[in-house]
Write a structure and sequence with these properties.
The complex is a heterotrimer of chains A (271), B (264) and C (271). Chain A has 271 residues and is of the alpha/beta class. Chain A has helices spanning 41-48, 71-78, 96-101, 110-114, 120-132, 148-160, 178-195, 206-212, 235-243, 248-252, 262-269, and strands at residues 2-10, 16-25, 30-34, 56-61, 64-65, 81-84, 166-170, 199-202, 215-220, 223-228. Chain A has one domain (2-233): Rossmann fold. Chain A contains eleven helices and ten strands. Chain A starts with a strand and ends with a helix. With 264 residues, chain B is an all-alpha fold. Chain B has one domain (65-261): Orthogonal Bundle (MetI-like fold). Chain B has helices at 13-36, 41-58, 70-98, 106-121, 124-135, 139-163, 167-175, 180-211, 223-231, 235-263. Chain B starts with 12 loop residues before the first helix and ends with a helix. The chains are: A alpha/beta (271), B mainly alpha (264), C mainly alpha (271). The structure holds adenosine-5'-triphosphate and magnesium ion. Chain C: It is a multi-pass membrane protein. Chain C: It comes from Haloarcula sebkhae. Chain C: GO terms for molecular function: ABC-type phosphonate transporter activity. Chain C: The chain crosses the membrane at residues 26-43, 84-106, 132-155, 219-237, 243-266.
Chain lengths: 271, 264, 271
């Protein structure tokens, strides 16, 4: 179980990206984090494995408090968190196999890493995962020879081979076309169910979030303004996430009334 | 405007004046420079004839002599390869210092930059002079001269490659719990490898040329017999050596170009 | 790929190599190692010699510091530097003037095949020989002094300048040239109005660049007697006057750096 407790992040530039965010994720739940650009979605997932160092608050994975670990202990806990990136972040000049196996580097001695000497069970597992993500036959291709969708599946394979306790994905579909995006999303949901791990996915497209997520967290200006099942994400909630509470009616009607009655207007729209 | 319809000029008046005076100043400098050389016109006038005469005496090349230069030629190649290899070994840490994204701190970065520009500013023959004083005449001095001279060039280009590294895969591998050394092996090294190989072969090509002349100050290679034969006016032997150098340089250039194309 | 179906192979994977196979790869590595061993032996590079050298190096460095010169040496230094600069200017001018026709000869779009090959050969020969080799020959031909240096530098300028200018000429827009020919321009007019304007910026850029390179070379051709500060440097080494050597080297480094800076600045201004 992942617990995020009152997490804050203020960048050196003074940007307050997270202003006390708390939530929990467990089981094999798929949690989509949505919110406008600059809301702090990336900052949030990156703070969980401390690629971005949070300034206050706590993150715990099961019984381990991630915030406050020293470097080597942090490396150990990172092995339990797989991460998937918007731009795939593969080593372009290495083969697919090497990219996938790089997910096991946390378990390898430096000398063995240098010799690229991975244990047979890792390689066996890499082959299994390759077929799981539908990439049989390309293990010897260089990553830069693949299409975007294929690359993202390599990225997913790299995270899965870690045998993580949780997957973190920062806009895994933003660089892909709509069809490929859906493929990737259903692959991720399959993994969550088969491996019985939760996934936190940052996502821009609300439709994808609604279709695939078990729960949606709406982030606006560094704060959680929605946290519930997709069914509850009505227009009011969407407005709150994307327009800071200002409804469409507020904008459209020049004489739509003051902000005090905006709730009524929203209620009337129903949706 | 003084522009009438039947005259046209590309530049307006001020610009024309500027150009005129610029050209004039250039000419004055050139003439002054020529006079400052205090050239003996006797020599200058006969120079073309002397040169023609010289090449006349060089021809035909002394084919029998070519047996004697096999050793020095091999030594030249050896010096260029060892010098380049040593340069790269020394250039790698300098490159990591001189790259803004890997330098540990500002003073280290400046040190890296200083080493890069200093080693580049001193000509290889001067380095050869210095190392001949230190290690005595021979190829060792040549190897060191070549390698020190090459640090700046190689480190600069490798540093540029390091600065262009995609941070994404560095981050991804870090996120999987890998150590900084693992990140170096798995992400940084593969990314700079092509630049690395092309810099190495390019520099080797340059160093082959340099290795042909460090013999003039006693630092080994084909330059040693070349200087001797010139001093003894053995022009036919000189031409043999020059042709062999030409061949060596052209071959190394071809090899270097082939290797660079291959890693792209 | 029958070998891949066995269960033993499932747990192993071999990275495809650029070499034919693993054996060839190790063979090549072995050969490279062997070559280095041979080179070390051949060059009589031994640890003891190295250690002795380090002692001598420390001694040399201490005897070089601080750099110093007597008043008469100061005269020599100034004279040498002035001579180097003067040689640079004259040689660059002569070199460029000669280079332009050679460049036209060596560009395949302006010259018939036989002329083209002659041009290319001139470029190849002038490029391949090191400036000091050319200088030492020029000294024998025209005697000690700056004239030999000027000839050597001008010779080397041709290889550089004509090659790069020819490449530029090969990229020109033929239309502009043909337009001049079409209205009855003579070949000279065609070059002047159809070719020159197109390559003029490149000529200026290359001239400044070459001025910088020639300045560097002018400081060393004196080592073989071809004028400039180089001869002063060589003499100081021969007289074991290392403090003066150091002073000369420092001045050379300063001049080269200033030259490089000015050249870079000028080229940027022009673009
Ligand atoms: N490295 C950084 N340094 C300074 N400020 C940053 C940095 N990264 C993000 N920010 C700021 O923090 C805030 C949140 O950014 P973040 O990238 O987390 O948003 P996001 O929700 O992921 O946006 P997007 O949808 O555009 O990816 C923004 O105001 C951003 O400008
Ligand atoms: Mg983001």
């Amino acid at each position: 179980m992942l617990t995020v407790d009152n997490l804050e992040k203020t960048y050196d530039s003074g940007d307050k990206a997270l202003k006390g965010v708390s939530f929990e994720v467990s089981g094999n739940e798929i949690v989509a984090i949505i919110g406008p650009s600059g809301a702090g979605k990336s900052t949030l997932v990156r703070s969980i494995n401390r690629l971005t160092e949070p300034t206050a608050g706590r993150v715990s994975l099961d019984d381990t408090e991630v915030t406050g670990l020293d470097k080597s202990a942090l490396r150990d806990v990172r092995r339990d968190m797989g991460m998937i990136f918007q731009e795939f972040n593969l080593v372009e000049r290495l083969t697919v196999m090497e990219n996938i196996l790089s997910g096991r580097l946390g378990y390898l001695s430096t000398w063995n890493a240098f010799r690229r000497n991975f244990p047979p069970e890792d390689i066996k597992r890499a082959r299994e995962i390759l077929s799981r993500v539908n990439l049989e036959g390309v293990e010897n291709n260089r990553a830069d020879e693949l299409s975007g969708g294929q690359r993202q599946r390599v990225g997913i394979a790299r995270a899965v081979i870690q045998r993580p306790k949780i997957l973190l994905a920062d806009e895994p579909t933003s660089a892909l076309d709509p069809d490929t995006s859906r493929e990737v999303m259903s692959l991720l949901t399959d993994i969550a169910h088969e491996d019985d791990i939760p996934i936190i996915i940052n996502i821009h497209e609300v439709d994808l979030a609604v279709d695939y997520a078990d729960r949606i967290i709406g982030l606006s200006d560094g704060e959680i303004v929605f946290n519930g099942p997709p069914d509850d994400l009505d227009q009011a909630a969407r407005d709150k996430i994307y327009r800071g509470g200002e409804s469409i009616a507020d904008r459209e009607g020049p004489s739509a009334g003051s902000s005090t009655d905006s709730d009524d207007v929203i209620a009337e729209r129903g949706d | 405007m003084s522009n009438s319809t039947d005259s046209w000029s590309r530049f307006d008046r001020r610009e024309r004046l500027l150009r005129f005076f610029g050209l004039l100043a250039g000419l004055v400098i050139l003439v002054a420079a020529w006079r400052a050389m205090e050239v003996n016109y006797g020599y200058a006038v006969t120079a073309p004839r002397e040169l023609a005469d010289l090449f006349g005496r060089m021809y035909p090349p002394n084919v029998g002599y070519s047996r004697k230069i096999v050793g020095p030629l091999l030594e030249t190649i050896n010096i260029s390869i060892l010098g380049t290899a040593l340069a790269i070994v020394m250039a790698i840490p300098v490159a990591f210092l001189g790259a803004s994204n890997t330098a540990p701190n500002k003073p280290a970065y400046l040190l890296g930059k200083f080493i890069i520009s200093f080693t580049r500013s001193v000509n290889v023959i001067i380095w050869a002079l210095i190392f001949v004083v230190i290690f005595g005449p021979g190829a060792l001095a040549g190897v060191l001269a070549i390698s020190i001279r090459s640090i700046g060039f190689t480190a600069k280009l490798i540093a540029e490659a390091i600065e262009e590294i995609d941070r994404g895969s560095v981050e991804a591998i870090t996120a999987a719990g890998a150590s900084p050394v693992d990140v170096l092996i798995y992400s940084i090294v593969p990314q700079i490898k092509p630049a690395f190989i092309s810099v190495a072969t390019l520099r080797w090509d340059i160093n082959v040329r340099a290795s042909t002349i460090i013999g003039f100050v006693g630092a080994g290679g084909i330059g040693v017999p070349l200087q001797t034969e010139i001093n003894y006016f053995n022009w036919e032997a000189v031409l043999t050596i020059l042709i062999s150098i030409l061949g060596l340089v052209l071959i190394s250039e071809a090899i270097s170009a082939y290797l660079r194309k291959k890693v792209m | 790929m029958a070998a891949e179906s066995g269960s033993a192979v499932e747990g192993s994977w071999e990275r495809p190599t650029v070499f034919y196979n693993k054996k060839v790869k190790y063979l090549i590595y072995g050969l490279i190692l062997l070559f280095f061993a041979y080179s070390f032996w051949n060059l009589r590079i031994s640890p003891s010699r190295f250690v002795r050298g380090i002692g001598a190096g420390v001694e040399l460095v201490t005897s070089m510091l601080p750099p110093a010169y007597t008043p008469s040496q100061r005269e020599l230094l100034i004279q040498g530097i002035v001579e180097s600069i003067v040689m640079t200017i004259v040689a660059t001018t002569i070199g460029i003037i000669v280079s332009v026709p050679v460049a036209i000869m060596a560009s395949n779009n302006l010259s018939p095949k036989p002329v083209y090959y002659v041009g290319r050969s001139i470029v190849a020969v002038t490029r391949s020989l090191h400036e000091l080799i050319v200088a030492i020959i020029m000294v024998k031909a025209v005697g000690f002094g700056p004239l030999a240096g000027v000839l050597a530098l001008a010779f080397k300028t041709i290889g550089f300048f004509a090659k790069l200018l020819a490449e530029e000429i090969e990229d020109i827009d033929r239309g502009q040239m043909e337009a001049i020919t079409a209205v009855g321009g003579t070949p000279v007019q065609t070059y002047l109005y159809g070719v020159l304007p197109q390559v003029m910026p490149r000529i200026i850029g290359l001239s400044i660049y070459r001025l910088d390179i020639n300045l560097r070379h002018s400081t060393v051709v004196g080592i073989v007697g071809a004028g400039g500060i180089g001869i002063t440097l060589l003499n100081s080494f021969d007289k074991y006057d290392y403090q003066f050597s150091m002073a000369i080297i420092a001045v050379i480094v300063a001049i080269v750096m200033v030259g490089e800076g000015v050249s870079a600045l000028a080229r940027r201004r022009i673009q």
